[in-house]
Amino acid sequence: MSIVEIDAIKMATKDLNGQIRDLMYAGSDKVLIKNVCGQRYIGTRLYSHERRKLDIEIFGTAGNDLGAFLFGHRLRVHGNAQDGVGNTMDDGEIIIEGRAGDVLGMSMRGGIIFVRDDVGYRTGLHMKEYLDKRPVVVIGGTSQDFLGEYMAGGIIILLGLGGKTHKANFIGTGMHGGVIYLRGNLTQEQLGKEVEILKLDNNDKEVLDRYISQFFEHFPELKLEKDQILYNDFIKLVPKSSRPYEKLYAY
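The structure corresponding to this sequence follows.
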């Protein structure tokens, strides 16, 4: 395996991403990026017709739009990430060993994102499914307001680890596809009017088992097993209608 290390201290965003792209085309398998401090778009300019794959480890705080348009690569952040993680992500995996900012997974249409701690506002905004792709976001903590806003497809899972309560409001506002699994309780006042609460069925339990198992494999430092939380007070949020705004149109 070809492993290359980059020291990103004081490096401009464009230069860093250009170097990563060059390494991909040169045949590198793994890139370690040290001293990252807010550089944006890491993992974005990595499309290739040959579907080359890079394993990228980031040490520091990743800037906005980490993994935007990600095309099958794997990103792991040893730290926090700012806004827009996985923006319009197509495929691949993003793992964040901390918290992430706002609009994580916006317009995401494939791949999977794991966040160990909390996320900001509007997580999952306009998430969608494309052909056989079904995007997944798993969050260890909780989120702020407008979770799953205008969500059209995919899966969001909130684990509420550490006994965190879900204080977000406007959850699922405009939601017309996909599903949100949330461990803990909510009041109806916290939800958008387009969302209803259902109990889990056997298929839901299989989904949770699969992705929660992967979550704890990625974060062994939590020293938790899936059986300690699996099926414990989970609720399922789904849209009441696939066309909540059909009366606004003339056709």
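The chain has a mean pLDDT of 93.
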